[in-house]
Each structure stands twice: as structure tokens, then as C-alpha cells.
Design a protein that fits this description.
Blueprint: H1 2-22, H2 45-54, E1 85-86, E2 90-91, H3 94-102, H4 104-107, H5 120-132
Antiparallel strand pairs: 1-2
Helix pairs in contact: 2-5, 3-5
Length: 134
């Protein structure tokens, strides 16, 4: 009989505890909707595409809509807007992508991606182009 009383008390107690735990603060989604988060409205998508080729990004990355030999040094840059994180560290937002492009080693000193000396406008153009890819 004692075990019956214990088992009938355990389930309601577990339910109550799970309700208390679930009532915490709501966390924002890891991947922001890049359309509503701002798509770098002033950026030039075509210039971003050209810069990817000119700055040598295609030496390490496969980038849709940019002709280049296939490289597997870095990850392919398709579907960036659907990823939760950039570089495995930053929540995926357009602003964080710009910061990453401006100086990757400052964000992750162990990255193989070099600082290629982009200006703010160039980083914004590249980020806008990458975020626009399907």
C-alpha cells in the first residue's frame, strides 16, 4: 500500500516540477529571420557577388552564383540564412555576419579564415548577397 501512495504522489510532483521549469524566460530563436531582421537595405548585392570572387573567398568556399573551381577548404556558403550560427559561435544575424567578414580572427582566433581587409561597405555588400541566396 505504501508503494501505491508513493507512485500516486510521484507523477503529480514530476508534472508540477516540469511546469515550473518550463515557465522560465522565453529564449529568442537562434537563427533570426533575415528578412525582418534587416537585409542591409543599402547594400549592393551584385557588388557583393563580385567581391566574393575578387577577394578570393572562392579559394576556400563554394558560393552559389559565383563561378569558381570546387573547393572544400571551408564550408559551402549556400543556405547561410537558414543556419543557426555563423562560424559555430555567433547567432546568425546580418550584423553578426558583417562583423565576422570584417575580421574573422578577432571573433575566433583559431579560424583558418583570414582577415582580407574588407571595408564596412564591402562586408555589408557580401553579407547581403550571401543572405539573399536561396
Amino acid at each position: 500500500m505504501r508503494e501505491t501512495v508513493r507512485s500516486t504522489l510521484v507523477l503529480p510532483a514530476m508534472f508540477a516540477l516540469s511546469c515550473v521549469v518550463a515557465c522560465g524566460d522565453v529564449e529568442p530563436p537562434l537563427a533570426q529571420d533575415t528578412i525582418s531582421a534587416g537585409r542591409l537595405d543599402e547594400a549592393d548585392l551584385e557588388q557583393g557577388r563580385r567581391l566574393i570572387a575578387e577577394k578570393g573567398c572562392v579559394a576556400c568556399h563554394v558560393v552559389p552564383q559565383v563561378r569558381s573551381p570546387v573547393s572544400t577548404v571551408g564550408p559551402p556558403l549556400n543556405n547561410i540564412r537558414t543556419r543557426a550560427y555563423l562560424s559555430g559561435l555567433l547567432p546568425n544575424t546580418p550584423a553578426n555576419l558583417v562583423q565576422w567578414l570584417l575580421n574573422p580572427p578577432a571573433i575566433n582566433p583559431r579560424t583558418a579564415m583570414p582577415n582580407v581587409g574588407l571595408s564596412q561597405a564591402q562586408a555589408e555588400d557580401i553579407a547581403a548577397f550571401l543572405m539573399s541566396l536561396p
